[in-house]
Specification:
The complex is a heterodimer of chains A (245) and B (322). Chain A has helices at 37-53, 68-77, 92-106, 125-133, 186-192, 231-241, and strands spanning 2-6, 9-11, 19-20, 25-26, 33-35, 56-63, 81-86, 110-114, 137-147, 150-157, 160-167, 170-174, 197-200, 209-215, 224-225. With 245 residues, chain A is of the alpha/beta class. In chain A, the strands form three sheets. In chain A, strands 11-10-9-12-8-1-6-7-13 form a nine-stranded mixed β-sheet, with helices on both faces. In chain A, strand 10 (150-157) and strand 11 (160-167) form a beta hairpin. Chain A is globular, with a radius of gyration of 21 Å. Chain B has two domains: 2-184, 3-Layer(aba) Sandwich (Rossmann fold); 200-321, Rossmann fold, CATH 3.40.50. In chain B, helix 4 (74-87) crosses helix 5 (99-111) and helix 6 runs parallel beside helix 9 (307-321). The longest helix of chain B is centred in the first third of the chain and has 17 residues, at 16-32. Classes of the chains: A alpha/beta (245), B alpha/beta (322). The interface between A and B is large, with 79 and 93 residues.
Amino acid sequence: MKILVCITHVPDTTSKIQFTENNTKFDKNGVQFIIGPYDDYALARAVELKEQLGASLTALNIGEAETEPTLRKALAIGADDAIRVNSFPKDSFFVSKQIAAIAKQNNYDLILMGRESIDFNGGMVHGMVGELLGIPSISPVMKLEIEGDKVKMAREIEGGKEYVEAKLPLIAGCQEPIAEWKIPNMRGIMSARTKPLVVVEPTSDAVVTDVTSFIMPPAKGAVKLVDKDNVGELVRLLKNEAKVL
Amino acid sequence: MSVLVYIEHAEGSVKKTSLEAVSYARALSDKLSSGEVIAVALGSIAAGELAKAGPAGASKVIHVSDQKLNDGIIQAHAEAVAQVYKKMAASTLVLAKSSLGDAVAARLAVKLDAGLVSNVVELPDTTSGYKVRRSIYTGKAFADTLVNTDHKILAVKKNAVDLKTDGPLAVVEEIKLEISAENFATSITSTDKATGEILLPEADIVVSGGRGMKGPENWGMIENLAKELSAATGCSKPVSDIGWRPHHEHVGQTGVKVAPTLYIAVGISGAIQHLAGVNSSKCIVVINKDPEAPFFKAADYGIVGDAFEVLPKLTEAIKAQK
């Protein structure tokens, strides 16, 4: 059993989002980068499955050299080895092509990743990889159990969940509560330094979309406070001023 | 040439978010002269319901009533929509962002060699190339994105355009498709879903509670206000983590992202991760007894006060103005 977990290298959720170079580049100044929170759930579940099934676990990231500490963290949490495709993740199609190429070489039984990255929030990569490989893609998955070659999953839908069954190989976009986030322990951190991390070049440069500029939302005006003993005034404001009732 | 809209339905009617996507497609076609707006619906639903895509902006609805498509099997839906797209010689596919829509759109992008943009918030701008504005960093910024392919897929965020309700009913055309067995490799064994409720990701008004509500037994107050407003109920992450409310009600960075017209937060302090899930709301009201709660900085209106006092009064005041 071979498991691949794909992780993104993204600004931590409390980061202040700013842009530089005339709003064409993300401003990394003072920003801490982390494993994407959804990918962290995928990784945690992958480590559990690895232990339960005696599987091998490879972590994959599409990114430039700066993402290696993030990949090392995935190794510290429990991946056996790591692959970095040496390129900026240009768009979801480009990233999907790279993942599909690595997957074709290595025949993974199960590919896990987060339901979406928290920078571009596209949530498209698992579906694209699934289609490129001709295997089922299921997302967002909040529970995943393997019984033989059968995979039993719960997928979140509006207002609840549906229970889905499919056979390996498949790809799943994960979210909580699929597993509890794992914090690397000292032994993990030490061993991560010597675990293999292979760097490969991208298979192609094809992109289908290009970001031309970033835009910040307009600044929010000051809050209008209403006295707690005069809630009727709030209703009036919502109706006549904000026109939302 | 035409614009195809993948519409979803639940409990016998077309989802409102899908009708909004139809209105988006109509506005797009009017702006760019992209031809007829055709909707496609899969699985069992009454033709009379589908015709209602007309007032939203579609001239025709293609209905593939094959019962095997009643379940939202991602691969099968993607294959069916791809076939209809090609039959209609469409150049653009529009759909509403949703649990199923996102999953289907991604596979379609590969099937149709189409550039895909998700979280679209405005109509495309074609003054130089085909540029689409989308929401990124969980609503904290936007990105203008050039789509370089002939075929385009746009997954539209709620409230990107106003819902149109004034056109004539659409013509509904039944068609049959051959969808091969490998597309049904996944099966849905059961569904566990709230029925008859207003669903959080689709609601125009959302009332959310946080730890300030002190316990699940006090949720009746949130529900009463929500009922009076025909709103959906939501909650903060701590509340869903401790099990006061189900996970599908968790609003925030790693939960549901909502974009209602009105968001009312009660007893939620306003951690940055929660704000990320609500910052696309048109109007935000915060009720919190702590005047220093960071949520007030992100709010349009606020009441500093005890939720247990303010909520019943607010519910009464809403009732009174009707």
